[in-house]
C-alpha cells in the first residue's frame, strides 16, 4: 500500500500550483529575441562601498533562468525576454558585449568605473554563461574598478569568482533575495531558496574576496501595504547583519508582462506599492550599517510604484538623491496631500481587502 509523503501532499499545491500557473501564463508569450543583441544597456551612477561611481549596466540575453523555466517567480517577466531554446552561444554573447561597449563609447565621456552584468537569471550558471565566456568577459573588463554579477545563491562559487577577483577587480554578487522572510519568499514570490542559502552564498563570496549586494522586492502579490513595509524594514536589517552583504537594493514590485502579478493586476487584485512606502523604509533603515538604495522602475505609472500622480516625480527624485547620499533628511523636503490617503492604506489595508485604493 502506498504511504503518504510530503511530495504527494504538495502535488498541485503551494509551489507546485504556483509553477503550473506561471508556466501557463508564460506560454502565451510568442515573441522571440535576437541572440546577438543585449536585452538592455544603459549608463548611470551608483553608490558603492568606495563611493559614487559611473556605471555601465548590461542585461545580457542568455537562455534565461532555470527556475523561470520550471515556472518561476510570480512577478518576474524577464524570462519572456530571453532567447528561445535555453542557450546562447559564446560568440553571440561576446557580440552582445561588443554592442554594449559601442554604446558606452558613443554615449559616455570616459569608460565606466563600475560594470554591472545581469542576465535575467544567473551569470554564474554554466548553462547560461559557460566558463570560457565568463573568462573572456572578465578579461574584457579587467581595466575597470569594480564589477557586479547577478546570481542565484546556488551558483555562487569561489572558483567562478576568481576569474574576476584575480584580475584585480572589486567584485560583488547581486543576489535576488527578495525578502529575508522565508514564508514570503516561498509563498508570495514563489522563489525556492531559504535565507540560510543566502547566508551561505555570502560566506562563499567572502571566501573569494567578493562582496554581496542583496536585491529585495517590496510588496510581492498577496501582501498588503503595511505588511510589505514591515517585511522590507525587517529584511534590510537582517541583510545588514550578514557579514559580506554591504549593499541592499530595495525595489518596489512593478507589473511585468506575462506574470502572475499581471493577472492579479488585471483582475483588480494588485496595486504596486506607494512611493511613500519606499521612502518610509529608506528613512527607517538609514541608520543600519549597510548601503540601502532603491530604483523604482516605471515610477508614477499604474504598473509601477506610484502615489497620486502629482508628487511622483518629486518623491522619485528624493529617492534617487537618497541613493547617492544616504541622507534621510531628503524626505523631509517632500510632501503632498496624498500622504493622508497613504496613511489610511497603511492603517486599514489587509491581505483580504487589497488594494484598498488604486
Ligand atoms: S526573479 Fe530571478 S529566480 Fe525568479 S524567475 Fe526571475 S530570473 Fe528566475
Ligand atoms: Zn501626491
CATH superfamily: Aldolase class I
Would you state the CATH class? Alpha Beta
Major sheet size, sense and barrel closure = 8 strands, mixed
Number of helices: 13
Keywords:
iron-sulfur; binds zinc ion; 8 strands; 358 residues; 8-stranded mixed beta sheet; S-adenosyl-L-methionine; alpha/beta; catalytic activity; globular; iron; binds iron/sulfur cluster
Task: Sum this structure up briefly.
This protein is an alpha/beta fold. The chain has helices at 6-10, 14-27, 66-70, 90-107, 131-140, 158-165, 182-189, 195-207, 225-240, 260-266, 275-284, 312-325, 339-348, and strands at residues 40-48, 51-59, 114-118, 146-150, 170-178, 211-218, 245-252, 291-293. It has one domain (6-348): TIM Barrel, CATH 3.20.20.
Describe this structure in words.
By secondary structure, the protein is an alpha/beta fold. Helix content is 39%, strand content 16%. The chain has a single domain, classed as TIM Barrel (Alpha-Beta Barrel), CATH 3.20.20. The chain contains 13 helices and eight strands. The longest helix has 18 residues. The radius of gyration is 20 Å and the shape is globular. The structure holds iron/sulfur cluster and zinc ion. Keywords: 4Fe-4S, Iron, Iron-sulfur, Metal-binding, S-adenosyl-L-methionine.
Amino acid at each position: 500500500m502506498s504511504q503518504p509523503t510530503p511530495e504527494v501532499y504538495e502535488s498541485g499545491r503551494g509551489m507546485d500550483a504556483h509553477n503550473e500557473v506561471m508556466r501557463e501564463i508564460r506560454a502565451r508569450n510568442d515573441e522571440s529575441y535576437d541572440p546577438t543583441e543585449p536585452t538592455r544597456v544603459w549608463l548611470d551612477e551608483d553608490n558603492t562601498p568606495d563611493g559614487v561611481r559611473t556605471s555601465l549596466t548590461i542585461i545580457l540575453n542568455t537562455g534565461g533562468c532555470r527556475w523561470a523555466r520550471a515556472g518561476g517567480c510570480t512577478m518576474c517577466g524577464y524570462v519572456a525576454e530571453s532567447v528561445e531554446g535555453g542557450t546562447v552561444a559564446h560568440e553571440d554573447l561576446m557580440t552582445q558585449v561588443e554592442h554594449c561597449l559601442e554604446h558606452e563609447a558613443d554615449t559616455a565621456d570616459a569608460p565606466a568605473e563600475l560594470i554591472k552584468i545581469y542576465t535575467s537569471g544567473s551569470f554564474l550558471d554554466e548553462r547560461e554563461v559557460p566558463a570560457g565566456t565568463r573568462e573572456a568577459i572578465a578579461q574584457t573588463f579587467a581595466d575597470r574598478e569594480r564589477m557586479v554579477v547577478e546570481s542565484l545563491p546556488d551558483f555562487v562559487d569561489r572558483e567562478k569568482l576568481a576569474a574576476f577577483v584575480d584580475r584585480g577587480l572589486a567584485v560583488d554578487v547581486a543576489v535576488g533575495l527578495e525578502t529575508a522572510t522565508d514564508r514570503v519568499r516561498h509563498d508570495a514570490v514563489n522563489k525556492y531558496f531559504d535565507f540560510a542559502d543566502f547566508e551561505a552564498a555570502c560566506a562563499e563570496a567572502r571566501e573569494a574576496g567578493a562582496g554581496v549586494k542583496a536585491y529585495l522586492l517590496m510588496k510581492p502579490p498577496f501582501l498588503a501595504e503595511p505588511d510589505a513595509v514591515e517585511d522590507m524594514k525587517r529584511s534590510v536589517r537582517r541583510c545588514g547583519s550578514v557579514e559580506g552583504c554591504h549593499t541592499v537594493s530595495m525595489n518596489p514590485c512593478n507589473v511585468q508582462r506575462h506574470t502572475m502579478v499581471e493577472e492579479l493586476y488585471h483582475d483588480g487584485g494588485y496595486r504596486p506599492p506607494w512611493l511613500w512606502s519606499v521612502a518610509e523604509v529608506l528613512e527607517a533603515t538609514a541608520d543600519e550599517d549597510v548601503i540601502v538604495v532603491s530604483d523604482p522602475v516605471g515610477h508614477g505609472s499604474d504598473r509601477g510604484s506610484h502615489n497620486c500622480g502629482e508628487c511622483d516625480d518629486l518623491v522619485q527624485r528624493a529617492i534617487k538623491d537618497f541613493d547617492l547620499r544616504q541622507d534621510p533628511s531628503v524626505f523631509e523636503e517632500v510632501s503632498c496631500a496624498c500622504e493622508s490617503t497613504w496613511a489610511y492604506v497603511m492603517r486599514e489595508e489587509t491581505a483580504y481587502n487589497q488594494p484598498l485604493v488604486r
